[in-house]
Design brief:
Elements (H helix, E strand, L loop, with lengths): L2 E2 L10 H13 L4 E2 H4 L10 H6 L21 E3 L2 E2 L5 E5 L29 H8 L6 E5 L8 H12 L6 E5 L2 H4 L2 H4 L2 H10 L6 E5 L9 H12 L3 E7 L8 H13 L4 E5 L14 H11 L11 E6 L2 E8 L3 E9 L8 E5 L20 E3 L2 E4 L11 H8 L25
Helix pairs in contact: 5-8, 10-11
Bound molecules: iron/sulfur cluster (SF4).
Iron/sulfur cluster binds next to loops.
Length: 416
């Protein structure tokens, strides 16, 4: 597999185009595998695969922050993030098979960034001394770009820590370079060894578009399933790539057929450089809801969520006036399971843009972080939305008219 890092090595781009895009690539790194480059339909300037990896001039528009969900606040040491008590992230690599133009961690690929670490010695020690950590996510960058020997060392060390039950690996290599799996029997054998009946390894794949599900990609997914890995998919909603109900629905259905069901669709974080890829919350929800109309239940398992600095927030429903959300996970225990009601705003891209409905104890957020949080009684946690919807009488008097009818999907269980 050849990785292309220079625009001048893409003959399909005219010289003028390359000159126009070079200033963008100088700011936000460019890289792509030759396999993935071959998937582009160069006749179509709006080709979604092209949008995904080829820079665009409008990335330089001033929008967002490099660390849009303030991961710095969760970084306990180089390469380790610890936001929720049971989950630790190990940022073990700072390279990916290609660089998604809309990446929310593109800061990792910049020269002066040292957040990721290949030396995880202190990270392992941190996890060892925190018995509440039962769930470790290897991420970056792409962990599957590490050598099989190095990845084996990491998995072996984590498996030796008794309280670590789930190991997850976030990767887009099955899309960017499925041969990483297909051509390396040692990698597959490693998964066979360490994904055990009592403690499975999960691979969080990252397919964004059904055209990425080539025969090779599907074969790599199959190889990993046969090795005993649990496969699932998560992706952001990206303008020009998958903000289309038909595209998303096609992908969901195909993913369910191949044993890699959709798990999360993320509202794009307001990350610097991502202006051309942004989708407003309301439109994203409409696309997502429409995509869920088709396919079996397994194709409709995804949840539409926002990874906000305060927690993971599910976008439950939108009606003519309001947006309904709920914390799936929260950094602050007071927010866990909290049901939120904001004024509908079709131009809002992030939680911080939304206005709470007066009379609810929905918190208001500001760009610089949490501005106010009203404490709610613990018995509301995880049940507020269902109570409000089923009895229609208001979670908080005045916030939910009895005759209000909205369409939404969520349950009272706090699934992570
Ligand atoms: S694979 Fe993930 S980490 Fe890598 S560039 Fe794409 S979005 Fe970013």
């Amino acid at each position: 597999m050849r990785y292309i890092k220079k625009l001048e090595d893409i003959p399909q781009l005219t010289e003028t185009k390359r000159a126009a895009l070079q200033p963008v690539a100088d700011v936000y790194a460019f890289r792509v595998s030759d396999y993935y480059l071959d998937l582009i339909d160069w006749q179509d300037p709006a080709d979604p695969i092209r949008q995904l990896v080829i820079p665009r001039e409008d990335e330089l528009k001033d929008w967002g922050r490099l660390d849009a969900s303030n991961e710095a606040a969760n970084t306990v040491m180089r390469g380790v993030q610890h936001k929720y008590p049971d989950t630790a992230l190990l940022l073990c690599n700072e390279v990916c098979g290609a660089y998604c133009r809309y990446c929310f961690r593109k800061r990792l690929f910049m020269n002066d960034n040292d957040e990721a670490s290949k030396d995880l010695t202190t990270g392992f020690e941190y996890i060892r001394t925190h018995p509440e950590i039962t769930n470790v996510l290897l991420t970056g960058g792409d962990p599957l770009l590490l050598s099989t020997r190095r990845l084996t060392e990491i998995i072996d060390t984590l498996r030796a820590i008794e309280h670590v039950q789930i190991i997850r690996i976030g990767t887009k290599m099955t899309a960017f370079n499925p041969f990483r799996v297909l051509d390396d029997p040692a990698l597959v054998a490693m998964f066979e060894k360490y994904s055990t009946p009592r403690k499975r390894i999960y691979i969080m794949n990252h397919f964004d578009h059904p055209r990425e599900l080539t025969d090779e990609a599907v074969a790599s997914v199959d190889r990993l399933i046969r090795a005993g890995v649990i496969m699932t998919n998560q992706c952001p909603m990206i303008a020009g790539i998958n903000d289309d109900p038909q595209v998303l629905s096609d992908m969901f259905r195909q993913l369910s057929w191949i044993g890699c069901p959709p798990y999360y669709v993320f509202q794009g974080r307001p990350t610097a450089g991502n202006d051309p890829y942004k989708v407003p919350i309301v439109r994203g929800w409409e696309v997502f809801r429409e995509a869920l109309r088709h396919g079996s239940g397994l194709a409709r398992r995804a949840r539409f969520v926002m990874s906000h600095e305060t927690g993971k927030i599910e976008i439950l429903a939108v009606d003519d006036e309001r947006i309904y959300l709920r914390y799936q996970r929260a950094k602050d225990a007071n927010l866990r399971g909290r049901f939120l009601v904001y004024r509908r705003d079709d131009d809002a891209y992030w939680l911080d843009d939304l206005e709470p409905i007066a009379g609810t104890d929905t918190p208001r957020f500001a760009a610089e972080g949490l501005a106010t949080v009203a404490d709610g009684p613990s018995d509301r946690r995880g049940r507020a939305g269902v109570i409000a919807l089923t009895i229609g009488s208001g979670w908080r008097s005045g916030c939910w008219p009895a005759n209000r009818s909205i369409s939404c999907r969520f349950s009272s269980r706090d699934r992570n």
